[in-house]
Amino acid sequence: MLLCHTVGVRRSTPLLNDHEHRNNPLVLRFNGLLALMRHKPLDMPPSGVGPEDTVLEIGPGTGNLTMKLLEVAKRVYAVEVDKRMVEVLGNRVSESGFREKVTIISKDALKADFPEFDLVVANIPYCISSPLVAKFVFGGYKFRSATLLVQKEFATRLLANPGDSEFNRLAVNVKLVADVEHVMNVSKRDFVPVPKVDSSVVTIRLKSEVPDVDLNEWWAFTKTCFSKKNKTLGATFRQKKKVAELLNLSTVTCSDEEDVVEADDGDVSDDEDDGENVIGAGGNLFKEKLVGILRDAGLEDKRPSKLPNEELMYLLALFNKAGIFFHDKEKPRDINASFADL
């Protein structure tokens, strides 16, 4: 497969006129965003695009990759938020004779409802990489693979495994439902102009079988565990603010529950010795229940960054069985919000 791509650099200069464009065909300027195309596409391993496939392309820009896809795919849905690029892309596919095979969706990819598709190809804006990947793997879509050009640092985090220094909540969540493969690195010198960071190409494939777990609970649970990923779980679950938060969400009853005082917004101490005068006797009983579950599971002194998903799911099941929950059931499911800070 050939992966063509663009890179944007902010400029305050006006749009190029027709004469400038004809004399510099590699340059287009859209509302202050200067996009320069590479002189040649990246050589990519075949991604299996066939004549019966529908491809979802995110960030087509002026359509370099779109044109290649239209030569082999049955249909392409191109999602582009920049209306200037939408206009250029529309004109380009019309002139090529492919207009009937492409649908241009002029919307923010995070807000758009995607039609059914078989494959994804995306040059993802780095600022929305996490929520967009989450939308693909948790949004209920069924596809064979997603080939993504992302920032190299993001790819490293996405590919990380338990025990790696980069292992994080993003990898934990994505790998619950998908397999991630590193395809190739792309040097920043392959772009014109040269950006500040290198890129990588990764492929994501949905797993045929996924664990039977409440995703809202799982996302909230892993957010708690990885809030300080290098702290032990025992230390994390002793924090007074976390104890008060979980007590409010859970169905556990403590004999002195009426004495519980929720930690205020300014109380962000990580001290393990909370003291009864802070969260009340009921809160301290609840804290001991939390720590007791960790201790019985043999995970009190473990760090989440070292644990595989199987052990984390086991721990979540123990908490839930004891009536301890992590997600506010009154709040609707929001994939973007759950992954915006990753």
Automatic annotation (TrEMBL):
Residues 47-208 form the Ribosomal RNA adenine methylase transferase N-terminal domain. S-adenosyl-L-methionine binds at L36, G59, E80, D108, N123. Coiled coil: none annotated. Pfam families: RrnaAD. Belongs to the class I-like SAM-binding methyltransferase superfamily. rRNA adenine N(6)-methyltransferase family. PANTHER family: DIMETHYLADENOSINE TRANSFERASE (PTHR11727), RIBOSOMAL RNA SMALL SUBUNIT METHYLTRANSFERASE, MITOCHONDRIAL (PTHR11727:SF12). This is rRNA adenine N(6)-methyltransferase. It comes from Tanacetum cinerariifolium.
